[in-house]
Every structure is written in C-alpha cells, then in structure tokens.
C-alpha cells in the first residue's frame, strides 16, 4: 500500500526534526452492512477507506496526524507541522526496515474482497426473523444485521519495523421487540469472530431468532426487581462485561502510567478472591478480539492478568512500557489510522473454575440470578459501575422463583473481585466493541457463571 522508500524518507525526515521515535500506520478498510427490519431488507451499505497515520514522540510527548494521501511530500509536510513547536537537532537515526510477516493464526475464507455474499446474508436474516416471529404473536418487530469488514494494515517505524497484517471481521445478530398492550420489552442475540462469512456454518438462524424472542417474551412478563445488598449469580458469556469495564480498563497502562487506576501500585498483591484467574489474549482461534499483531506491529500473546487472586500483569503498549517499565504485551490497538495506539484489551475473561450453576443458585437464600448483562456506566479511575441486567430472575431458598425487570448491579471493580466465591466450568465468550482514547475496537468479553456473595442490587419493587 505504501512504498517502503517513501516510508523511509518520511521517517528519516521525522527524526531529522528531532523525534525520538517515528511510526507510520497505513490502512485500507473495506466494509459492508446488510440489515433487515422485520420482513424488509434495508439498503445495503458498503465502502472503502484509506489513510495513513503518523506518530512522532518527543521525550514522551506524542504528536499525531493523518492523511488520505500517500505521497512523501504530504507526509513530510505533516511531520514538519507536528514538530513545529518541538523541533530540535536529531537525537536518533533510523534503522533500515526489516520486513516481518507473522503467521495468520485466524484463517478466513468468504471475505469481502472476494464475495459480498449478500444473498446468503439476507437469507440468514430472513430465516432468523421467521423464527423470531413464530415464537409468539406478541413479537411485534425484529431488526437483523450482518456487518462484515476487511482491514489491511502496514506498520513502519524508526526502529526498523516493517510489518503487514490483514484482519477479517464478521458479526451477525437480531433483536426482537415483544408487546402486550402498552407494555414492551426487547431481547437480542448475536455472534461474530475474526473470520469471514463462513461463520454461517456455525451459527443457526433459527436459534438466533428464537433466542432474541425468548428474551423479549421473558422480560415482557417479568416482575419488578427487589433492591438492596444481596448475593448475585452472574451468567456466563456477556456477563464478563463487568470485569472488562470495571477492572480491565484499570489494568491498561493508559490508566496505570497516570496513576489514575486504583491498581497502579498493586502489582503482585492480592486484589481478588483466590478463586479468580483472569487473562487477556489475542490467540484464541478466530475469536472476535483476537489479532495476529497489534497496531504497533508486535505479535499477540497470552497475558495472565490475575493469578489465584493476585495481580500478575498489566496491559502494556510501547509508550506505556516506557512510562511504567513493564514489558510490552502486544496490546497497542487503535480504531483506524485516525488514532494513535494505546494499551487496549483483546479477548478478556475470567477463566473457568470447578463449580456449577445449579450449586451457585442453590446456595442463595434470597438474591438474583443475572442471566444476561447489558450496558452501563463506569468511573475510569475507581472502577465504580452501574450495569443493567437484561435478563434476570429472583432466587429464594435456592430456587429460581420468577423473572425480574429493571435490575441493576452497583459496585466497584476492586470490591466485586473480592466478593467472587464460586466460579463455574461453563466458560463462554461474547462479542463487544470497546471505546477508549484510541477509538472503538473489537474486544471479546467472557466468563463462566460466577457467584458474587454481596453486591448492591438496584430495583423498583
């Protein structure tokens, strides 16, 4: 995409005006989105974006600019403008590029640049809609989507790195609305991965529609949730969004280096119940948050964040390593060429334990089973959170009694980690999009079912 001689000229120029480090991130991005509203197919959306981001570092100060042009003169002009206030005599010299390309650990077959596969995507969404509508006359509307993209990147830097990578993303799902008189409720289901439309072989449109409508109908008949402090069992899969938001972000050097994370000085200390083990990795085959290399050109890896309750590692990008002294973990990520990279999560989850869901529920006198979690709000520095339960049940005397609505879980990341007492064997992963200083990136959240002994539940009963 970018001639290596052009890249060398630009990086040489960036160093000639005094940068300690210079990097070019080149990206070509294909997108295609197919969506439906009940029985209707909405207009197909597709596009191609190309651009180059230039990062320059002066004594830890990051300067960043981008352009859609690939000629040396334009890129050198941007470098000169970025360095206008920090310009100085050269302090380092560039190394010759050493081209490296890692193994593609996440193979893809039906990709955008070969086949849009529009007809089969529409057929999938229509079959899911039919299944959702067949569940009940109370299902008033469905909305389906199948979003696919293909991202080609090249990374050059002043340390001699020249790396290339191609990422193929696919995500498909459906939401359903159930209505009974003036009352409405919703449910949804989706799946995705770092692969092409061949994912259709492993996702069932009938299940997609049935699950969306099942959640909607369950919530339609739900009772008001009681409030107060009580034990809660959080279901597997997307339940891991709480760990991601309330704890994972606190382990990124983006927060640690600024000492805005409560964990910044707790490396090696017990921060969770000893039953808790948590990882962040990019290696799981074709998982939504997996990568071959990060957006700084470093191969991905498996990072053990928490081991037997003890803080074992942070998530470290290049700048974070310089600021904290911790080794890089291949966690430098960005949404596109318009963003400088930062330490970000990949596939982040609490590992499987030895308990089972039935025993967890049986151990509750009065509490809640949060089968599915939704979005919420988090305070970046403290990990204080407020998350909505999208499918929940009231539990009494060790048995599920009835579904509840409008439940929220309120606590902090550090507090909830210490209240986890049981972890199931049923580890499951789920797709999500994570927003931070370097934009929105695909991340996987996950966990087995787990029991939190004491947490504040918000409800309106």
Automatic annotation (TrEMBL):
Residues 22-83 form the Metalloprotease TldD/E N-terminal domain. Keywords: Hydrolase, Metalloprotease, Protease. GO terms for cellular component: cytosol. It comes from uncultured Thiotrichaceae bacterium. InterPro entries: Metalloprtase-TldD/E_C, Metalloprtase-TldD/E_cen_dom, Metalloprtase-TldD/E_N, Peptidase_U62_metallo, TldD/PmbA_N, TldD/PmbA_sf. This is TldD protein, part of TldE/TldD proteolytic complex. Residues 117-220 form the Metalloprotease TldD/E central domain. SUPFAM superfamilies: Putative modulator of DNA gyrase, PmbA/TldD.
């Amino acid at each position: 995409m970018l001639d290596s001689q052009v890249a060398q000229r630009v990086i040489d120029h960036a160093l000639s005006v005094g940068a300690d480090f210079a990097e070019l991130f080149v990206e070509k991005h294909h997108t295609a989105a197919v969506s439906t509203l009940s029985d209707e197919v909405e207009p197909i959306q597709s596009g191609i974006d190309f651009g180059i981001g230039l990062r320059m570092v002066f004594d830890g100060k990051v300067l960043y600019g981008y352009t859609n042009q690939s000629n040396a003169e334009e890129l050198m002009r941007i470098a000169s403008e970025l360095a206008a206030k920090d310009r100085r005599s050269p302090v380092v010299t560039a190394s010759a590029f050493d081209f490296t390309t890692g193994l593609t650990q996440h193979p893809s077959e039906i990709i955008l640049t070969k086949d849009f596969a529009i007809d089969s995507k529409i057929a999938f969404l229509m079959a899911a809609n039919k299944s959702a509508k067949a569940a009940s006359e109370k299902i008033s509307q469905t909305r389906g989507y199948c979003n696919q993209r293909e991202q080609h990147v090249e990374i050059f830097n002043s340390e001699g790195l020249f790396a290339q990578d191609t990422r193929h993303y696919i995500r498909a799902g459906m939401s359903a609305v159930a209505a009974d008189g003036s009352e409405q409720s919703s449910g949804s289901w989706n799946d995705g991965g770092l692969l092409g439309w061949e994912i259709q072989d492993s996702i069932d449109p009938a299940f997609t529609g049935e699950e969306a409508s099942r959640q909607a109908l369950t919530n339609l008949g739900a009772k008001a949730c009681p409030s107060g402090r009580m034990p809660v069992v959080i279901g597997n899969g997307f339940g891991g969004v709480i760990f991601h938001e309330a704890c994972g972000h606190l382990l990124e050097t983006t927060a640690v280096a600024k000492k805005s994370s409560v964990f910044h000085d707790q490396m090696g200390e017990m921060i969770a119940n000893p039953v808790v083990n948590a990882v962040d990795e990019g290696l799981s085959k074709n998982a939504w948050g997996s990568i071959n290399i990060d957006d700084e050109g470093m191969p991905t890896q498996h990072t053990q964040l928490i081991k037997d309750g003890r803080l074992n590692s942070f998530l470290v990008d290049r700048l974070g390593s310089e600021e904290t002294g911790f080794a890089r973990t291949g966690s430098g990520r960005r949404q596109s060429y318009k963003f400088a990279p930062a330490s970000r999560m990949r596939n982040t989850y609490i590992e499987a334990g030895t308990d089972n869901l039935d025993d967890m529920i049986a151990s509750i006198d009065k509490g809640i089973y949060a089968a599915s979690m939704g979005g919420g709000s988090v305070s970046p520095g403290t990990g204080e959170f407020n998350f909505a339960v999208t499918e929940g049940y009231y539990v009494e005397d060790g048995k599920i009694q009835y579904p509840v609505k409008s439940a929220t879980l309120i606590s902090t990341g550090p507090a909830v980690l210490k209240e986890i007492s049981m972890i199931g064997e049923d580890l499951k992963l789920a797709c999500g999009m994570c927003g931070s200083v370097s934009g929105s990136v695909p991340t996987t959240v996950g966990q087995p079912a787990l029991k939190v002994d004491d947490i504040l539940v918000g409800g309106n009963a």
